[in-house]
Give the backbone structure.
Amino acid sequence: MVPKKVVERMNLLTRQKQDRSTLVRLCLVSHHFVLDPNYSLKGRGVYLPLDKESIQKIFRKGILKKYSQESDYEALLKEVLAYVDRRTNS
């Protein structure tokens, strides 16, 4: 039996490649970032670590603003943190 290939993506904060299952994907749809929990939306995506402190650091520094000026980052931060909470506590 052939083992499954591990899908790796680049972490936006550390710029290191990691297993995709350890990252959260945000997809850029119509100039707005959208949380993509199933990794299925079409469009340019960025991957954030599954770590609340790192996610807050990314939003505080405004790293995502170079990709989109039109997103509601406060609402997106709350949504991403709630998703991370659900995923790490289950």
The first strand starts at residue 8 and ends at 10.
